[in-house]
Amino acid sequence: MKEPLPMHRESVLPCVLAGDAPRAVDSPMDSDAFAGFYERSARPLWAYLARVSGDPALADDLMQESFIRFLCASQPDEGEVASRRYLFRIATNLLRDHWRRPRQASIEEIPEELFAASPSSSSADLLGPALAVMRPRERQLLWLAHAEGYTHREIAQITGLASASIRILLFRARRRIASLLREQSSVPQSQPRWRQP
Amino acid sequence: MMLNPCSRTKEVADLLRRGQWPAVCEPELRSHASACRSCGDLVLVTETLLRARSESAGTVRIGSPSALWWRAQLRRRNAAVERIGRPIFGAQIFALVVNLFIVVAFLAYQARNGLAWLSWLEQLPQAYSLQFESLSQSSLLNPNWNLLVLIPALASLVLLGGMAIYLASEKQ
């Protein structure tokens, strides 16, 4: 456990301006500690972003941006669990900002299926049939609660929602996805089992 | 809608969270979960999402942490430079305000004292026209001296103003 980090900006500036990065004062961790944290957190974070957004490329971008913002933030080091929760919070905010942003019609954003002869990796394939039908907010709550194992209070900290709301929303989402999963297991494999989001 | 219809949901959730379902689980609890909708939902959803998590985490190739580290340091450095530049910009604004105040005060003072110097200025073109009368007569042009003075002066002013704006905005 490292000592709590000082928060004086005056002492940070000369170090940062001189390019002395390896132990930036108000950074949550040093480069070695960050490398370890990254190795342990990057895959779960990518899985969260990819499964909630249904877009692997977006998950790549947001994961990188989340880690950079995490390092730039003046968050005191409170241990790996808290750091990971903070990282998920940043990623959740980035996802929300992405959804709020007006859609741009550039060639990079046109889905691959329009160019490819056979659609091989659609978002529904990535999400899975049941998750693809759920709303992004429901996917987020379900993932945080059941894949990451966060409590309602922790999910509230990550998403910015009230704990009481999370309990209700999660209950409904769980019931809905469970019905979809049961339907899906009862439907023959050849038939289409879900609608595109 | 009942949110907690089953009292054993927490027990099942704890086992799932610890990764002990269904290995370390009493047969009675397992049979309860298969019969209870709430517990059954919980088991089904958690197992599905945990499987999806391990699938996704297994397929992704993560980049180098050092590249992210240095990108973050660069961003922090730029932010620090911007923080340092902010007081300088404030000082520039303050200097501009002070200068404007001085100009306004000077004009107000002059207006109150009857703009005596303006009468001298009004006589200036006439003086020039007298002084350069011979030149203007010999010239092919028929110069209007007021305009001859005014246009270059305005042009210089515009040029200098443009340069000043360019130099001020060059940093940005």
Which radius of gyration of chain A do the C-alpha atoms yield? 20 Å
Give me the secondary-structure category of chain A.
mainly alpha
- Overall pLDDT confidence of chain B: 78
N-C termini distance of chain A: 44 Å
The computed structural class of chain B is: mainly alpha
**Largest sheet of chain A, if any?**
none
Unreliable residue stretches of chain A = 1-25, 114-122, 189-197
Oligomeric state of this protein: heterodimer
Radius of gyration of chain B: 41 Å
Task: Give a quick account of the main beta sheet of chain B: strands, pairing sense, barrel closure.
Answer: none
Fraction in beta strands of chain B? under 5%
Strand segment count of chain A: 0
Task: Provide mean pLDDT of chain A, rounded.
Answer: 76
* Largest interface, C-beta within 8 A: A-B, 47 and 37 residues
Order of helices and strands of chain A: HHHHHHHHH
The count of helical stretches of chain A stands at 9
Say how many strands of chain B there are. Answer: 0
Q: How many separate helices of chain B?
A: 7
Order of helical and strand elements of chain B:
HHHHHHH
The percentage of residues in β strands of chain A lies in under 5%
Shape of chain B: rod-shaped
